[in-house]
Write a structure and sequence with these properties.
Length: about 250
């Protein structure tokens, strides 16, 4: 069994307005995950004390970080990360399309790793954070399901797409992914079937998701709903226990 956690850490600034990398690391450590997908990670940004949040969280968890910068402003970076202690390789990391009608929107990207589970078994995980505007999200989803990403030759099942999609289960972008993958909410063996993660103090929205291919069995799915998690970020972590098979 493996445990995968996806978490929008809100640049490690909590609902109390305090920047605290250690608090985020503690929330993650309490769940004891094998693979951690993070969104809204600051690296060297003045607004968060120039901390390399990806490396600092990974250091506290005794994991190796992989980071992809969706936004670069001189030496300041902002984007997504995957942390793990499992052997792995980077499959791909790159930008997602923006919405031409609104060029000032925050740039978005994706980070894709392959994990060596031993005995010839691998698991691919793609972590992303989609935009806020529905048309922007649809363009980004179309790119992700297209041949340059998971619709192409690089994808090997078992495969998991996860992250903050900023879109609920009735959205068009959700349907774009559900057309090619299964949503983990609908296939969990144990736990609630509808797991809300936002806002963290009173979660009512399902915008953090995991979509899985054949070969991935969801044993349990839940939100990390501790008192610390309700304060550490504006999202709760989404936690899945999985098994893989050919």
């Amino acid at each position: 069994m493996l445990r995968l956690l996806t978490y929008n850490v809100h640049r490690c600034v909590g609902t109390d307005g305090r920047h605290d990398v250690g608090r985020i690391a503690a929330v993650i450590a309490a769940e004891a995950p094998d693979i951690v997908a993070l969104q809204e990670v600051d690296v060297g940004r003045a607004r968060t004390g120039k901390v390399d949040q990806a490396h600092e969280i990974a250091r506290r968890l005794n994991m190796t970080p992989r980071f992809h910068a969706a936004l670069r402003v001189e030496e300041e970076l902002y984007g997504d990360a995957i942390l793990t202690s499992l052997p792995h390789t980077v499959v791909k990391a790159g930008p997602l399309p923006g919405y031409p009608a609104a060029p000032m929107l925050e740039p978005r990207g994706a980070l894709w790793l392959s994990f060596d589970l031993g005995k010839g078994r691998c698991l691919q995980v793609l972590n992303t954070h989609l935009g806020l505007v529905p048309r922007e999200q649809q363009l980004q989803a179309a790119a992700l399901v297209g041949e340059q990403w998971l619709g192409g030759a690089l994808r090997q099942d078992p495969f998991i797409l996860t992250g903050d999609f900023n879109a609920g289960p009735r959205s068009r972008v959700y349907a774009q992914f559900a057309h090619v993958l299964r949503n983990a909410h609908d296939f969990a063996t144990h736990g609630p079937r509808r797991v809300a993660t936002f806002p963290s103090r009173l979660p009512v929205l399902r915008i953090d998701h995991m979509f899985v291919s054949s070969g991935v069995r969801i044993l349990g799915l839940r939100a990390g709903m501790t008192a610390l998690a309700r304060t550490a970020s504006d999202h709760l972590p989404l936690v899945a226990d999985i098994m893989t098979h050919a």
